[in-house]
UniProtKB/TrEMBL annotation:
Residues 26-352 form the Leucine-binding protein domain. It comes from the Bacteria. Residues 1-24 form the signal peptide. It comes from Xenophilus arseniciresistens. Belongs to the leucine-binding protein family. Keywords: Signal. This is ABC transporter substrate-binding protein. InterPro entries: Leu-bd (IPR028081), Peripla_BP_I (IPR028082).
Amino acid sequence: MMHRFLQLLLAAALLAHASAGRSADVVVGQVTPLTGPEARQGMAYAAGLKLALEAANRGTHNPARHTFKLVAVDDRGAPEESLQQTSRLIAQSRPLVLTGHVGGPSLSALLKSGLLDRNELLMVGYRSAQILPSSQRLFAIKAGMPEELGKLMTHIHTVGWKRVVLLYENEGGAEGLLAAADAAAQQAQVTLVDRLEIDKGSLDAKVDRVLRAKPQALVVAAGGFVAGAFIERLRLAGAQTPIFTLSNADMEQLAVRLGDDHLRGLVISQVMPNPYKVTTAISKEFNDLARAHDVATPRSFTMMEGYVAGRVIVEAIQRQGTRPTREGMTAALESIHGLDLGGYMIGFSGASRAGSTYVDLSIVNAMGKVQQ
């Protein structure tokens, strides 16, 4: 009898040991526009995430051999639907982490709902045309809007222009954006002669105001759909004013709407490595994977952003060992300092949730090609 008891005890110990060393199945959740005006951004981000997670499943950057699964759900870009879909995804798929939300209103609604806090979930990587309230639940994997505005205003000053009009999309929290734009303009010694809120219903009126103001440069801080519609109207009205946009406008989405004639000369700030040229190790890795697995989604800066988000998530999971948890994600991310993903540095210091300060500029040349 005692011998049988010892056998059972040994079997239980071996089972516990095997369980302790077994890697986890990790669900990464994304609620994003997969249909509607901003669907290109949501789909590109999801494609980049999937590329990174599937590479990890094959053993790349994944020594603990976790199995990653992306669950992407369509919210059509509607904040109320985004919140409902996020709640449903959390209940049904039990993700370890969220990523890739698109749109300030959706993210603001999610933060206000308390859903992240109640479920001890983090959002690692997202896209917004506004500066969001500070939250310990949001980790950015790229430079923020103040850094982008600073880069654009400094370039405008370097060229010799002084009079600038800012056009911005008010997603329900424009105060931070306007303050950042004012600070960037002051630092660069340029003057904001006007600040105009734009949306789908006011484009013609704002085009008229820009024509009357006769600025030397325009800075457009808006999502791809609204930014593209405004630039199209402005160019059709005959204005040749130099235009600068932030990265959330999405170069590829603008290119689909505008074509070479209206894109020519456009300058856009970029916060990701170039997805088209092998200028860094991560660019090569990204392009090699996309080619090897015949990814249907066209390569883009947004797709690269999704890939970087996936790489950061995989790294944070690895740092937790074989049993990663939602609660352990914060400490794992905060332990990342000066991580080189292959020419793109990521680090979170102290209470900072901004993982990078990298900003570069792209310009569309006379041939309609992007130069960086």
